[in-house]
Amino acid sequence: YTRLEHAFQPYHLLSKVVVRDGDGRYSLAVHGSDASYYGVQRKRYAIPTDEFTDTPGLDASQRIRRGLLQKDVVTAVLPGIVRVRPGDGARVADSALAMGGLLVREVLWRQGRDGITTTLTMVKAAYWD
User: Fold this and answer.
1) Residues 74, 77, 82, 85: is their CA dihedral positive or negative?
2) How far apart are CA 111 and CA 125, in angstroms?
3) Residue 52: other Cβ atoms inside 10 A
4) pLDDT at site 53
5) In the predicted structure, residue 57 carries a pLDDT above the cut 90
6) If you write DSSP's letter for every residue of the chain in order, what string do you get?
7) pLDDT tens for residues 10-36?
8) How far is Cα 60 from Cα 39, in angstroms, rounded to an integer?
9) Is the separation of the CB atoms in 128 and 89 below 8 Å?
10) How far from 30 is each of 24, 80, 119, 127, CA to CA, in Å?
11) Greater confidence, 129 or 81?
């Protein structure tokens, strides 16, 4: 790699998502346990879209999962074209950063004056949808 970056951003975590029901009350709450572990207290109030009307807890869970995916993001810039697809497993084994259990979320091939590079954005596999 030519660049390796680990962005640890616990402020993306949600401690609670409270969902409004069909009667207009906020009667369902889904808790994010990782947020309390890091001392983060972020609460969101949600009105589920029609897609989640029958299962409003699913919308709340997806919001919590989205925050978990954004908490630990590893970016690696590799020289040349590397044949990798989103969803492929990955790990980083470097003296500065060693992380396993990653999945490739995004692949970007770029050509510039320094040649061709592949940029991988990786997240923790445990939180992948």
Assistant:
1) positive
2) 29
3) 17
4) 63
5) no
6) --EEEEEE-GGG--SEEEEE-TTS-EEEEEE-HHHHHTT---EEEE---GGGSS-HHHHHHHHHHHHHHHHEEEEEEEES-----TT-EEEEE-SS-EEEEEEEEEEEEEEETTEEEEEEEEEEGGG--
7) 888 999 999 888 788 898 898 988 888
8) 20
9) no
10) 17, 44, 35, 16
11) 81
Q: How many residues does the chain have?
A: 129
Q: Tell me if 46 sits within 8 A of 60, measured CB to CB.
A: yes
According to DSSP, the residues that pair with 74 across neighbouring strands are 6, 122
Residue 52 — left, alpha, or beta (φ > 0 → left; ψ -120 to 50 → alpha)? alpha
